[in-house]
Design brief:
alpha+beta; 18 strands; about 625 residues; 5-stranded antiparallel sheet
Length: about 625
Protein backbone atom coordinates (compact mmCIF):
# COMPACT_ATOMS: atom_id res chain seq x y z
CA UNK A 1 0.00 0.00 0.00
CA UNK A 2 2.85 2.40 0.76
CA UNK A 3 4.06 2.37 -2.85
CA UNK A 4 0.64 3.65 -3.99
CA UNK A 5 0.39 6.41 -1.39
CA UNK A 6 1.43 9.17 -3.79
CA UNK A 7 -1.09 8.10 -6.45
CA UNK A 8 -3.86 7.67 -3.87
CA UNK A 9 -3.23 11.19 -2.54
CA UNK A 10 -3.32 12.53 -6.11
CA UNK A 11 -6.59 10.72 -6.88
CA UNK A 12 -8.17 11.80 -3.59
CA UNK A 13 -7.13 15.40 -4.17
CA UNK A 14 -8.59 15.34 -7.70
CA UNK A 15 -11.90 13.94 -6.45
CA UNK A 16 -12.05 16.42 -3.53
CA UNK A 17 -11.30 19.30 -5.89
CA UNK A 18 -13.99 18.12 -8.33
CA UNK A 19 -16.59 17.95 -5.55
CA UNK A 20 -15.53 21.41 -4.35
CA UNK A 21 -16.08 22.96 -7.78
CA UNK A 22 -19.37 21.12 -8.29
CA UNK A 23 -20.83 22.05 -4.89
CA UNK A 24 -22.07 25.52 -6.03
CA UNK A 25 -24.01 23.80 -8.83
CA UNK A 26 -25.66 21.50 -6.29
CA UNK A 27 -26.27 24.46 -3.95
CA UNK A 28 -27.85 26.51 -6.77
CA UNK A 29 -30.07 23.55 -7.68
CA UNK A 30 -31.28 23.23 -4.07
CA UNK A 31 -31.93 27.00 -3.82
CA UNK A 32 -33.94 27.04 -7.06
CA UNK A 33 -35.91 24.00 -5.94
CA UNK A 34 -36.71 25.72 -2.64
CA UNK A 35 -37.67 28.96 -4.40
CA UNK A 36 -40.15 27.05 -6.55
CA UNK A 37 -42.06 26.18 -3.37
CA UNK A 38 -42.24 29.85 -2.28
CA UNK A 39 -44.22 32.77 -3.66
CA UNK A 40 -44.89 36.44 -3.03
CA UNK A 41 -43.39 37.93 0.13
CA UNK A 42 -41.89 34.59 1.21
CA UNK A 43 -39.89 34.35 -2.01
CA UNK A 44 -38.72 37.98 -1.78
CA UNK A 45 -37.75 37.57 1.88
CA UNK A 46 -35.78 34.39 1.19
CA UNK A 47 -33.87 36.07 -1.66
CA UNK A 48 -33.06 39.13 0.48
CA UNK A 49 -31.90 36.98 3.42
CA UNK A 50 -29.73 34.67 1.30
CA UNK A 51 -28.76 37.15 -1.42
CA UNK A 52 -25.01 36.65 -0.98
CA UNK A 53 -25.19 32.82 -1.07
CA UNK A 54 -27.53 32.87 -4.07
CA UNK A 55 -25.25 35.25 -6.00
CA UNK A 56 -22.11 33.22 -5.24
CA UNK A 57 -23.76 29.90 -6.12
CA UNK A 58 -25.06 31.23 -9.44
CA UNK A 59 -21.70 32.78 -10.27
CA UNK A 60 -19.78 29.52 -9.69
CA UNK A 61 -22.25 26.92 -10.93
CA UNK A 62 -22.00 25.17 -14.29
CA UNK A 63 -23.27 27.60 -16.89
CA UNK A 64 -25.97 26.39 -19.26
CA UNK A 65 -26.01 27.56 -22.87
CA UNK A 66 -28.73 29.34 -24.78
CA UNK A 67 -29.82 26.18 -26.57
CA UNK A 68 -30.56 24.45 -23.24
CA UNK A 69 -31.86 27.28 -21.09
CA UNK A 70 -33.70 29.36 -23.67
CA UNK A 71 -33.16 33.10 -24.02
CA UNK A 72 -32.13 35.66 -26.60
CA UNK A 73 -29.35 36.12 -29.12
CA UNK A 74 -28.87 39.69 -30.33
CA UNK A 75 -26.44 41.01 -32.93
CA UNK A 76 -25.67 44.71 -32.42
CA UNK A 77 -23.91 47.08 -34.78
CA UNK A 78 -22.24 50.19 -33.40
CA UNK A 79 -23.26 53.20 -35.50
CA UNK A 80 -19.79 54.67 -35.94
CA UNK A 81 -20.97 57.07 -38.65
CA UNK A 82 -23.48 58.62 -36.25
CA UNK A 83 -20.71 59.17 -33.71
CA UNK A 84 -18.47 60.80 -36.32
CA UNK A 85 -21.38 62.98 -37.33
CA UNK A 86 -21.87 64.14 -33.73
CA UNK A 87 -18.14 64.91 -33.34
CA UNK A 88 -18.20 67.30 -36.29
CA UNK A 89 -18.33 71.09 -35.87
CA UNK A 90 -19.78 73.75 -38.17
CA UNK A 91 -21.99 71.19 -39.94
CA UNK A 92 -23.64 72.47 -43.11
CA UNK A 93 -25.72 71.14 -46.03
CA UNK A 94 -22.60 69.99 -47.87
CA UNK A 95 -21.48 67.95 -44.87
CA UNK A 96 -24.95 66.37 -44.55
CA UNK A 97 -24.93 65.43 -48.25
CA UNK A 98 -21.53 63.70 -47.94
CA UNK A 99 -22.63 61.84 -44.81
CA UNK A 100 -25.72 60.60 -46.67
CA UNK A 101 -23.46 59.18 -49.42
CA UNK A 102 -21.18 57.53 -46.83
CA UNK A 103 -24.18 55.97 -45.08
CA UNK A 104 -25.47 54.52 -48.35
CA UNK A 105 -22.09 52.99 -49.21
CA UNK A 106 -21.44 51.70 -45.66
CA UNK A 107 -24.68 49.70 -45.76
CA UNK A 108 -23.41 47.76 -48.80
CA UNK A 109 -19.78 47.36 -47.70
CA UNK A 110 -17.83 45.85 -44.81
CA UNK A 111 -15.07 48.44 -45.31
CA UNK A 112 -14.12 50.50 -42.28
CA UNK A 113 -16.42 53.53 -42.02
CA UNK A 114 -13.51 55.92 -41.39
CA UNK A 115 -11.87 54.76 -44.66
CA UNK A 116 -15.06 55.48 -46.61
CA UNK A 117 -15.37 58.74 -44.69
CA UNK A 118 -11.87 59.85 -45.68
CA UNK A 119 -12.26 58.79 -49.32
CA UNK A 120 -15.53 60.66 -49.81
CA UNK A 121 -14.10 63.92 -48.49
CA UNK A 122 -11.00 63.52 -50.69
CA UNK A 123 -13.19 62.93 -53.74
CA UNK A 124 -15.00 66.20 -53.01
CA UNK A 125 -11.61 67.88 -52.36
CA UNK A 126 -12.79 69.10 -48.96
CA UNK A 127 -10.37 69.32 -46.06
CA UNK A 128 -11.54 67.48 -42.96
CA UNK A 129 -10.13 70.28 -40.81
CA UNK A 130 -13.16 72.28 -41.87
CA UNK A 131 -15.27 70.06 -39.60
CA UNK A 132 -12.75 68.32 -37.29
CA UNK A 133 -9.67 69.24 -35.31
CA UNK A 134 -7.69 72.40 -36.04
CA UNK A 135 -7.06 74.10 -39.38
CA UNK A 136 -3.38 73.13 -39.24
CA UNK A 137 -4.06 69.39 -39.15
CA UNK A 138 -3.86 67.33 -42.35
CA UNK A 139 -6.51 64.88 -43.53
CA UNK A 140 -4.30 61.90 -42.58
CA UNK A 141 -3.84 63.19 -39.04
CA UNK A 142 -7.57 63.76 -38.58
CA UNK A 143 -8.46 60.37 -40.11
CA UNK A 144 -6.02 58.69 -37.72
CA UNK A 145 -7.74 60.37 -34.76
CA UNK A 146 -11.22 59.50 -36.05
CA UNK A 147 -10.22 55.85 -36.60
CA UNK A 148 -8.85 55.71 -33.07
CA UNK A 149 -12.10 57.19 -31.75
CA UNK A 150 -14.21 54.68 -33.69
CA UNK A 151 -12.14 51.69 -32.45
CA UNK A 152 -12.43 52.95 -28.89
CA UNK A 153 -16.18 53.46 -29.36
CA UNK A 154 -16.74 49.80 -30.28
CA UNK A 155 -14.57 48.53 -27.40
CA UNK A 156 -16.22 50.89 -24.92
CA UNK A 157 -19.67 49.92 -26.19
CA UNK A 158 -18.78 46.28 -25.46
CA UNK A 159 -17.71 47.10 -21.91
CA UNK A 160 -20.80 49.22 -21.22
CA UNK A 161 -23.08 46.52 -22.63
CA UNK A 162 -21.28 43.97 -20.44
CA UNK A 163 -21.77 46.20 -17.36
CA UNK A 164 -25.46 46.65 -18.11
CA UNK A 165 -26.01 42.94 -18.70
CA UNK A 166 -24.15 42.02 -15.48
CA UNK A 167 -26.23 44.47 -13.44
CA UNK A 168 -29.41 43.26 -15.15
CA UNK A 169 -28.78 39.89 -13.49
CA UNK A 170 -28.14 37.50 -16.41
CA UNK A 171 -26.00 34.79 -14.91
CA UNK A 172 -24.36 33.32 -18.04
CA UNK A 173 -24.17 36.05 -20.69
CA UNK A 174 -21.92 35.72 -23.71
CA UNK A 175 -20.65 38.98 -25.25
CA UNK A 176 -18.30 38.76 -28.24
CA UNK A 177 -16.93 41.21 -30.78
CA UNK A 178 -17.46 40.32 -34.43
CA UNK A 179 -15.57 42.25 -37.09
CA UNK A 180 -14.99 45.95 -36.61
CA UNK A 181 -18.49 47.15 -35.77
CA UNK A 182 -20.60 44.26 -34.47
CA UNK A 183 -21.18 42.79 -31.02
CA UNK A 184 -22.95 39.46 -30.42
CA UNK A 185 -24.84 39.19 -27.12
CA UNK A 186 -26.36 35.92 -25.86
CA UNK A 187 -28.63 36.15 -22.81
CA UNK A 188 -29.76 32.74 -21.49
CA UNK A 189 -33.02 32.69 -19.55
CA UNK A 190 -34.15 36.14 -20.79
CA UNK A 191 -37.50 36.47 -22.55
CA UNK A 192 -38.55 40.16 -22.25
CA UNK A 193 -37.61 41.50 -25.67
CA UNK A 194 -38.64 45.12 -25.01
CA UNK A 195 -36.51 45.30 -21.85
CA UNK A 196 -33.51 43.81 -23.65
CA UNK A 197 -33.84 46.33 -26.48
CA UNK A 198 -33.96 49.21 -24.03
CA UNK A 199 -31.07 47.76 -22.03
CA UNK A 200 -28.79 47.27 -25.03
CA UNK A 201 -29.74 50.25 -27.19
CA UNK A 202 -30.37 52.99 -24.63
CA UNK A 203 -27.64 55.60 -25.09
CA UNK A 204 -28.26 56.93 -21.56
CA UNK A 205 -28.03 60.55 -22.72
CA UNK A 206 -29.45 62.27 -19.65
CA UNK A 207 -30.19 66.00 -19.89
CA UNK A 208 -31.87 68.55 -17.63
CA UNK A 209 -33.68 71.10 -19.82
CA UNK A 210 -35.77 74.08 -18.79
CA UNK A 211 -39.29 74.21 -20.16
CA UNK A 212 -40.18 77.32 -22.18
CA UNK A 213 -42.89 79.68 -20.92
CA UNK A 214 -46.36 78.18 -21.64
CA UNK A 215 -47.48 81.26 -23.56
CA UNK A 216 -44.46 80.99 -25.87
CA UNK A 217 -45.13 77.28 -26.45
CA UNK A 218 -48.80 77.83 -27.27
CA UNK A 219 -48.10 80.85 -29.47
CA UNK A 220 -45.59 78.73 -31.38
CA UNK A 221 -48.19 75.98 -31.79
CA UNK A 222 -50.70 78.60 -32.95
CA UNK A 223 -48.22 79.94 -35.49
CA UNK A 224 -47.69 76.41 -36.86
CA UNK A 225 -51.47 75.88 -36.96
CA UNK A 226 -52.07 79.11 -38.95
CA UNK A 227 -49.16 78.41 -41.29
CA UNK A 228 -50.39 74.89 -42.10
CA UNK A 229 -53.86 76.27 -42.76
CA UNK A 230 -52.43 78.87 -45.14
CA UNK A 231 -50.44 76.15 -46.92
CA UNK A 232 -53.40 73.78 -47.20
CA UNK A 233 -51.56 71.31 -44.89
CA UNK A 234 -49.70 69.71 -47.80
CA UNK A 235 -47.88 67.13 -45.62
CA UNK A 236 -51.06 65.19 -44.87
CA UNK A 237 -54.58 65.93 -43.84
CA UNK A 238 -55.88 65.24 -40.33
CA UNK A 239 -58.61 62.68 -40.50
CA UNK A 240 -61.87 63.07 -38.55
CA UNK A 241 -61.00 59.99 -36.51
CA UNK A 242 -57.68 61.57 -35.50
CA UNK A 243 -59.51 64.68 -34.38
CA UNK A 244 -61.91 62.56 -32.34
CA UNK A 245 -58.92 60.90 -30.65
CA UNK A 246 -57.50 64.22 -29.51
CA UNK A 247 -60.99 65.33 -28.43
CA UNK A 248 -61.14 62.25 -26.18
CA UNK A 249 -57.76 63.25 -24.73
CA UNK A 250 -59.02 66.75 -23.92
CA UNK A 251 -62.18 65.40 -22.32
CA UNK A 252 -60.14 63.02 -20.19
CA UNK A 253 -58.10 65.89 -18.68
CA UNK A 254 -59.15 67.79 -15.60
CA UNK A 255 -60.49 71.16 -16.80
CA UNK A 256 -58.79 74.04 -15.00
CA UNK A 257 -58.18 77.69 -15.87
CA UNK A 258 -57.28 78.06 -19.53
CA UNK A 259 -54.58 80.38 -20.79
CA UNK A 260 -55.58 83.32 -22.97
CA UNK A 261 -53.88 81.73 -25.96
CA UNK A 262 -55.81 78.47 -25.77
CA UNK A 263 -59.24 79.88 -24.86
CA UNK A 264 -59.96 80.98 -28.41
CA UNK A 265 -58.64 77.74 -29.87
CA UNK A 266 -60.77 75.40 -27.76
CA UNK A 267 -63.86 77.65 -27.58
CA UNK A 268 -66.99 76.90 -29.59
CA UNK A 269 -68.94 73.77 -30.32
CA UNK A 270 -67.45 72.63 -33.63
CA UNK A 271 -67.70 69.17 -35.11
CA UNK A 272 -64.41 67.23 -35.40
CA UNK A 273 -64.50 67.69 -39.18
CA UNK A 274 -64.94 71.48 -38.90
CA UNK A 275 -62.21 71.76 -36.26
CA UNK A 276 -59.76 69.70 -38.36
CA UNK A 277 -60.43 71.92 -41.35
CA UNK A 278 -59.92 75.19 -39.46
CA UNK A 279 -57.07 74.01 -37.18
CA UNK A 280 -54.92 71.37 -38.96
CA UNK A 281 -52.26 71.31 -36.21
CA UNK A 282 -54.53 71.61 -33.16
CA UNK A 283 -56.62 68.78 -34.58
CA UNK A 284 -53.56 66.62 -33.94
CA UNK A 285 -52.11 68.31 -30.83
CA UNK A 286 -54.51 69.64 -28.21
CA UNK A 287 -53.12 72.20 -25.73
CA UNK A 288 -53.40 71.34 -22.06
CA UNK A 289 -56.52 73.10 -20.72
CA UNK A 290 -54.67 73.99 -17.51
CA UNK A 291 -52.25 76.16 -19.47
CA UNK A 292 -49.16 74.31 -18.20
CA UNK A 293 -47.45 74.26 -21.58
CA UNK A 294 -47.93 70.68 -22.78
CA UNK A 295 -49.81 69.45 -25.78
CA UNK A 296 -51.57 66.06 -25.97
CA UNK A 297 -51.69 63.78 -29.00
CA UNK A 298 -52.90 60.30 -29.88
CA UNK A 299 -50.29 57.61 -30.44
CA UNK A 300 -51.79 57.20 -33.93
CA UNK A 301 -50.77 60.78 -34.82
CA UNK A 302 -47.21 60.86 -33.45
CA UNK A 303 -45.53 59.98 -36.75
CA UNK A 304 -47.60 62.62 -38.59
CA UNK A 305 -46.76 65.29 -36.00
CA UNK A 306 -43.06 64.41 -36.21
CA UNK A 307 -43.14 64.84 -39.97
CA UNK A 308 -44.73 68.27 -39.57
CA UNK A 309 -42.26 69.46 -36.94
CA UNK A 310 -39.25 68.31 -38.99
CA UNK A 311 -40.29 70.28 -42.07
CA UNK A 312 -37.72 73.04 -42.77
CA UNK A 313 -40.46 75.64 -43.26
CA UNK A 314 -42.10 74.70 -39.96
CA UNK A 315 -38.72 74.71 -38.17
CA UNK A 316 -38.37 78.40 -39.04
CA UNK A 317 -41.50 79.16 -37.00
CA UNK A 318 -39.93 77.80 -33.80
CA UNK A 319 -37.89 80.08 -31.52
CA UNK A 320 -34.16 79.55 -32.16
CA UNK A 321 -33.63 78.15 -28.65
CA UNK A 322 -36.66 75.80 -28.53
CA UNK A 323 -37.39 72.18 -29.52
CA UNK A 324 -40.37 69.86 -29.05
CA UNK A 325 -39.96 66.59 -27.13
CA UNK A 326 -42.36 63.70 -26.52
CA UNK A 327 -43.05 62.23 -23.10
CA UNK A 328 -41.37 58.87 -22.50
CA UNK A 329 -44.63 57.21 -21.40
CA UNK A 330 -48.31 57.63 -22.26
CA UNK A 331 -50.01 60.22 -20.06
CA UNK A 332 -53.38 58.53 -20.32
CA UNK A 333 -55.60 56.20 -22.29
CA UNK A 334 -59.13 56.50 -23.62
CA UNK A 335 -61.06 53.70 -25.33
CA UNK A 336 -57.86 51.74 -25.96
CA UNK A 337 -55.97 54.71 -27.44
CA UNK A 338 -52.82 56.00 -25.70
CA UNK A 339 -52.06 59.72 -25.47
CA UNK A 340 -48.64 61.31 -25.18
CA UNK A 341 -47.54 64.72 -23.96
CA UNK A 342 -45.59 67.10 -26.19
CA UNK A 343 -43.21 69.49 -24.41
CA UNK A 344 -41.54 72.68 -25.62
CA UNK A 345 -38.03 72.77 -24.11
CA UNK A 346 -34.90 74.83 -24.47
CA UNK A 347 -32.42 73.33 -26.92
CA UNK A 348 -29.34 73.64 -24.75
CA UNK A 349 -29.45 71.56 -21.55
CA UNK A 350 -28.71 73.21 -18.23
CA UNK A 351 -26.91 70.08 -17.04
CA UNK A 352 -26.11 66.60 -18.43
CA UNK A 353 -25.91 63.12 -16.95
CA UNK A 354 -22.12 63.25 -16.88
CA UNK A 355 -22.32 64.63 -13.34
CA UNK A 356 -24.29 61.60 -12.05
CA UNK A 357 -22.17 59.41 -9.76
CA UNK A 358 -24.89 57.10 -8.44
CA UNK A 359 -28.46 56.11 -9.25
CA UNK A 360 -30.89 53.96 -7.28
CA UNK A 361 -34.38 52.65 -8.02
CA UNK A 362 -36.84 52.88 -5.14
CA UNK A 363 -40.44 53.60 -4.21
CA UNK A 364 -41.48 57.15 -3.36
CA UNK A 365 -43.02 56.84 0.15
CA UNK A 366 -45.20 59.93 -0.37
CA UNK A 367 -46.93 58.86 -3.57
CA UNK A 368 -46.15 55.10 -3.62
CA UNK A 369 -44.72 55.25 -7.14
CA UNK A 370 -41.40 54.02 -8.56
CA UNK A 371 -38.65 56.62 -8.89
CA UNK A 372 -34.92 56.72 -9.57
CA UNK A 373 -32.89 58.93 -7.21
CA UNK A 374 -29.61 60.37 -8.48
CA UNK A 375 -26.57 61.78 -6.72
CA UNK A 376 -24.25 64.26 -8.45
CA UNK A 377 -20.56 64.95 -8.04
CA UNK A 378 -19.34 68.14 -6.37
CA UNK A 379 -19.22 70.12 -9.61
CA UNK A 380 -22.71 68.95 -10.58
CA UNK A 381 -24.05 69.75 -7.11
CA UNK A 382 -22.80 73.33 -7.33
CA UNK A 383 -24.28 73.82 -10.81
CA UNK A 384 -27.58 72.20 -9.80
CA UNK A 385 -27.90 74.52 -6.80
CA UNK A 386 -27.19 77.54 -9.02
CA UNK A 387 -29.62 76.44 -11.77
CA UNK A 388 -32.50 75.60 -9.44
CA UNK A 389 -31.94 78.75 -7.40
CA UNK A 390 -32.13 80.94 -10.51
CA UNK A 391 -35.25 79.26 -11.94
CA UNK A 392 -37.67 78.95 -9.02
CA UNK A 393 -41.30 78.32 -10.12
CA UNK A 394 -40.15 77.22 -13.58
CA UNK A 395 -40.35 73.64 -14.83
CA UNK A 396 -37.26 71.51 -15.37
CA UNK A 397 -37.65 68.57 -17.77
CA UNK A 398 -35.62 65.42 -17.14
CA UNK A 399 -34.81 64.10 -20.63
CA UNK A 400 -33.34 60.65 -21.22
CA UNK A 401 -32.47 59.67 -24.78
CA UNK A 402 -34.58 62.55 -26.14
CA UNK A 403 -37.71 61.52 -24.22
CA UNK A 404 -39.14 63.45 -21.26
CA UNK A 405 -39.57 61.29 -18.15
CA UNK A 406 -40.90 64.08 -15.99
CA UNK A 407 -41.05 67.89 -15.87
CA UNK A 408 -41.44 68.91 -12.22
CA UNK A 409 -41.76 72.49 -11.01
CA UNK A 410 -38.73 73.94 -9.21
CA UNK A 411 -40.05 74.98 -5.80
CA UNK A 412 -36.74 76.22 -4.48
CA UNK A 413 -32.97 75.94 -4.58
CA UNK A 414 -31.81 72.29 -4.41
CA UNK A 415 -28.53 71.77 -2.59
CA UNK A 416 -26.57 68.55 -2.16
CA UNK A 417 -26.88 67.40 -5.79
CA UNK A 418 -29.73 64.98 -5.17
CA UNK A 419 -32.63 64.72 -7.62
CA UNK A 420 -35.04 62.11 -8.91
CA UNK A 421 -36.68 60.84 -12.08
CA UNK A 422 -40.37 59.95 -12.10
CA UNK A 423 -42.66 58.53 -14.78
CA UNK A 424 -41.84 54.80 -14.57
CA UNK A 425 -44.73 52.33 -14.64
CA UNK A 426 -43.22 49.82 -12.20
CA UNK A 427 -40.14 49.12 -10.10
CA UNK A 428 -38.70 46.83 -12.81
CA UNK A 429 -38.62 49.72 -15.27
CA UNK A 430 -37.05 51.96 -12.62
CA UNK A 431 -34.43 49.28 -11.99
CA UNK A 432 -33.67 49.13 -15.73
CA UNK A 433 -33.18 52.90 -15.82
CA UNK A 434 -30.90 52.69 -12.77
CA UNK A 435 -28.73 50.12 -14.58
CA UNK A 436 -28.44 52.26 -17.71
CA UNK A 437 -27.50 55.38 -15.73
CA UNK A 438 -24.96 53.61 -13.53
CA UNK A 439 -23.31 51.68 -16.36
CA UNK A 440 -22.72 54.85 -18.34
CA UNK A 441 -23.63 56.23 -21.72
CA UNK A 442 -22.82 54.43 -24.95
CA UNK A 443 -20.19 56.34 -26.94
CA UNK A 444 -22.21 55.79 -30.13
CA UNK A 445 -25.72 54.53 -30.91
CA UNK A 446 -26.12 50.79 -31.48
CA UNK A 447 -28.58 49.17 -33.87
CA UNK A 448 -30.05 45.70 -33.46
CA UNK A 449 -29.56 44.04 -36.84
CA UNK A 450 -30.50 40.50 -35.80
CA UNK A 451 -32.50 39.07 -32.93
CA UNK A 452 -33.41 35.46 -32.19
CA UNK A 453 -35.28 34.00 -29.25
CA UNK A 454 -35.23 30.45 -27.92
CA UNK A 455 -38.34 29.70 -25.91
CA UNK A 456 -38.05 28.00 -22.51
CA UNK A 457 -40.16 25.07 -23.73
CA UNK A 458 -37.70 24.43 -26.58
CA UNK A 459 -34.86 24.72 -24.08
CA UNK A 460 -36.50 22.16 -21.77
CA UNK A 461 -37.00 19.79 -24.70
CA UNK A 462 -33.32 20.17 -25.60
CA UNK A 463 -32.26 19.51 -22.01
CA UNK A 464 -34.43 16.41 -21.84
CA UNK A 465 -33.13 15.15 -25.18
CA UNK A 466 -29.54 15.79 -24.07
CA UNK A 467 -30.04 14.05 -20.71
CA UNK A 468 -31.70 11.09 -22.41
CA UNK A 469 -28.87 10.67 -24.94
CA UNK A 470 -26.26 10.91 -22.16
CA UNK A 471 -28.13 8.47 -19.90
CA UNK A 472 -28.77 5.90 -22.63
CA UNK A 473 -25.15 6.03 -23.79
CA UNK A 474 -23.93 5.56 -20.22
CA UNK A 475 -26.30 2.66 -19.48
CA UNK A 476 -25.52 0.77 -22.71
CA UNK A 477 -21.77 1.27 -22.24
CA UNK A 478 -21.81 0.16 -18.59
CA UNK A 479 -23.92 -2.92 -19.37
CA UNK A 480 -21.58 -3.91 -22.20
CA UNK A 481 -18.49 -3.57 -19.99
CA UNK A 482 -20.03 -5.52 -17.11
CA UNK A 483 -21.28 -8.36 -19.30
CA UNK A 484 -18.22 -8.69 -21.55
CA UNK A 485 -15.35 -7.90 -19.16
CA UNK A 486 -16.93 -8.84 -15.80
CA UNK A 487 -14.63 -7.65 -12.95
CA UNK A 488 -12.51 -5.58 -15.31
CA UNK A 489 -15.68 -3.98 -16.67
CA UNK A 490 -16.79 -3.04 -13.14
CA UNK A 491 -13.47 -1.28 -12.47
CA UNK A 492 -13.71 0.47 -15.86
CA UNK A 493 -17.21 1.65 -14.94
CA UNK A 494 -15.85 3.24 -11.75
CA UNK A 495 -13.25 5.05 -13.86
CA UNK A 496 -15.99 6.10 -16.29
CA UNK A 497 -18.03 7.77 -13.54
CA UNK A 498 -14.94 9.63 -12.31
CA UNK A 499 -14.29 10.67 -15.91
CA UNK A 500 -17.73 12.31 -16.17
CA UNK A 501 -17.31 13.86 -12.70
CA UNK A 502 -14.02 15.50 -13.72
CA UNK A 503 -15.49 16.86 -16.99
CA UNK A 504 -18.30 18.67 -15.17
CA UNK A 505 -15.88 19.86 -12.46
CA UNK A 506 -13.54 21.41 -15.05
CA UNK A 507 -16.54 23.07 -16.72
CA UNK A 508 -17.52 24.65 -13.40
CA UNK A 509 -13.95 25.59 -12.43
CA UNK A 510 -13.11 27.45 -15.66
CA UNK A 511 -16.54 28.99 -16.20
CA UNK A 512 -17.28 26.89 -19.30
CA UNK A 513 -20.80 26.70 -20.72
CA UNK A 514 -22.63 23.42 -21.19
CA UNK A 515 -24.43 23.33 -24.53
CA UNK A 516 -26.27 20.68 -26.52
CA UNK A 517 -23.18 20.05 -28.72
CA UNK A 518 -21.21 19.93 -25.47
CA UNK A 519 -23.37 17.04 -24.28
CA UNK A 520 -22.62 15.32 -27.60
CA UNK A 521 -18.93 15.78 -26.82
CA UNK A 522 -19.39 14.13 -23.41
CA UNK A 523 -21.23 11.20 -25.00
CA UNK A 524 -18.33 10.76 -27.45
CA UNK A 525 -15.88 10.94 -24.53
CA UNK A 526 -17.71 8.06 -22.81
CA UNK A 527 -17.09 5.95 -25.91
CA UNK A 528 -13.42 6.93 -25.99
CA UNK A 529 -12.99 6.17 -22.29
CA UNK A 530 -14.33 2.67 -22.91
CA UNK A 531 -12.11 2.33 -25.96
CA UNK A 532 -9.01 2.90 -23.80
CA UNK A 533 -10.14 0.24 -21.34
CA UNK A 534 -10.95 -2.18 -24.17
CA UNK A 535 -7.38 -1.82 -25.51
CA UNK A 536 -5.97 -2.52 -22.02
CA UNK A 537 -8.25 -5.48 -21.28
CA UNK A 538 -7.60 -7.13 -24.65
CA UNK A 539 -3.86 -6.84 -24.05
CA UNK A 540 -4.31 -8.36 -20.57
CA UNK A 541 -6.30 -11.25 -22.04
CA UNK A 542 -3.49 -11.89 -24.54
CA UNK A 543 -0.90 -11.90 -21.75
CA UNK A 544 -2.96 -14.39 -19.72
CA UNK A 545 -2.24 -17.08 -22.31
CA UNK A 546 1.50 -16.79 -21.65
CA UNK A 547 1.23 -18.17 -18.12
CA UNK A 548 2.38 -15.01 -16.30
CA UNK A 549 1.18 -14.12 -12.81
CA UNK A 550 -1.91 -11.94 -12.46
CA UNK A 551 0.12 -8.90 -11.40
CA UNK A 552 2.60 -9.34 -14.26
CA UNK A 553 -0.27 -9.81 -16.73
CA UNK A 554 -1.96 -6.58 -15.67
CA UNK A 555 1.33 -4.62 -15.78
CA UNK A 556 2.11 -5.98 -19.25
CA UNK A 557 -1.39 -5.17 -20.51
CA UNK A 558 -1.16 -1.54 -19.39
CA UNK A 559 2.39 -1.19 -20.69
CA UNK A 560 1.66 -2.52 -24.19
CA UNK A 561 -1.64 -0.59 -24.57
CA UNK A 562 -0.13 2.68 -23.34
CA UNK A 563 1.28 3.90 -26.68
CA UNK A 564 -1.95 3.18 -28.58
CA UNK A 565 -4.03 5.00 -25.93
CA UNK A 566 -1.73 8.03 -25.96
CA UNK A 567 -1.73 8.20 -29.77
CA UNK A 568 -5.53 8.01 -30.12
CA UNK A 569 -6.25 10.48 -27.30
CA UNK A 570 -3.61 13.01 -28.37
CA UNK A 571 -4.83 13.08 -31.98
CA UNK A 572 -8.39 13.55 -30.73
CA UNK A 573 -7.25 16.31 -28.36
CA UNK A 574 -5.47 18.20 -31.15
CA UNK A 575 -8.55 17.83 -33.34
CA UNK A 576 -10.53 19.42 -30.51
CA UNK A 577 -7.99 22.28 -30.30
CA UNK A 578 -8.41 22.99 -34.03
CA UNK A 579 -12.21 22.87 -33.78
CA UNK A 580 -12.18 25.21 -30.78
CA UNK A 581 -9.74 27.65 -32.39
CA UNK A 582 -11.46 27.99 -35.76
CA UNK A 583 -15.03 27.02 -34.94
CA UNK A 584 -17.79 29.19 -33.52
CA UNK A 585 -20.71 28.70 -31.16
CA UNK A 586 -21.91 25.05 -31.18
CA UNK A 587 -18.63 23.75 -32.65
CA UNK A 588 -16.65 25.33 -29.81
CA UNK A 589 -19.03 23.83 -27.25
CA UNK A 590 -18.47 20.37 -28.70
CA UNK A 591 -14.69 20.84 -28.88
CA UNK A 592 -14.47 22.12 -25.29
CA UNK A 593 -16.10 19.09 -23.66
CA UNK A 594 -14.24 16.76 -26.03
CA UNK A 595 -10.82 18.16 -24.94
CA UNK A 596 -11.75 18.02 -21.27
CA UNK A 597 -13.06 14.47 -21.69
CA UNK A 598 -9.89 13.28 -23.40
CA UNK A 599 -7.71 14.77 -20.64
CA UNK A 600 -9.86 13.22 -17.91
CA UNK A 601 -9.83 9.90 -19.81
CA UNK A 602 -6.05 9.64 -19.72
CA UNK A 603 -6.10 10.14 -15.97
CA UNK A 604 -8.95 7.72 -15.17
CA UNK A 605 -8.10 4.94 -17.67
CA UNK A 606 -4.35 4.85 -17.00
CA UNK A 607 -4.03 5.96 -13.37
CA UNK A 608 -7.25 5.28 -11.41
CA UNK A 609 -8.13 1.86 -12.87
CA UNK A 610 -4.51 0.64 -12.63
CA UNK A 611 -4.27 1.65 -8.95
CA UNK A 612 -7.51 -0.24 -8.27
CA UNK A 613 -6.20 -3.38 -9.99
CA UNK A 614 -2.83 -3.16 -8.21
CA UNK A 615 -4.54 -2.79 -4.82
CA UNK A 616 -6.74 -5.81 -5.57
CA UNK A 617 -3.71 -7.97 -6.42
CA UNK A 618 -1.82 -6.60 -3.41
CA UNK A 619 -4.61 -7.80 -1.13
CA UNK A 620 -4.21 -11.30 -2.48
CA UNK A 621 -7.04 -11.48 -4.98
CA UNK A 622 -6.31 -14.69 -6.83
CA UNK A 623 -8.23 -14.00 -10.00
CA UNK A 624 -9.74 -10.98 -11.67
CA UNK A 625 -12.16 -11.89 -14.43
CA UNK A 626 -11.56 -9.99 -17.70
CA UNK A 627 -14.20 -11.91 -19.64
Amino acid sequence: MKQYRGKLILISAAIALALYFLYPTYQSYKINKHLDTLSGADSTGYIQTNEKDIREARAKRIKVGLDLQGGMRVVLEVNVLKMLQELAKNKDDQFSAIVAEIEKEAQLSDENVTVIFSRKFEEKQIRLSRYYGSLRETNDEIVKKLRDESDKAVDRAMEIIRNRVDQYGVSEPSIQKQGGRRVIVELPGVSKEDEVRQLLQGTALLEFKLMKDPDIIYKTMEAIDKYLLSQGFSDSTASPSASKDTTKATDALTTLTQSDTTKSILAGQKTPEQFAKEHPFFALVRPDQRGLGEGYASENDRARIDRILKRPDVQKLLPSDMEFYWGAKPSGMSEGVKFYQLYGLKKIPELTGGVIVDARATIDPNFNQPIVTMNMNSEGSREWARITGANVNKRMAIVLDNAVFSAPKINGKISGGRSQIEGMENIEEARLLEIVLKAGALPAPVDIIEQRSVGPSLGEDSIQAGINSFTYALIVTVLFMLVYYRTGGAVATVGLFFNVLFIFAVLAAFGGTLTLPGIAGIVLTIGMAVDANVLIFERIREEMTTGKTLRATIDAGYSKAFSAIIDSNLTTFFSGVVLFQFGTGPVQGFALTLMMGVTANLFTAITITRVVFNMMTERGTATINFG
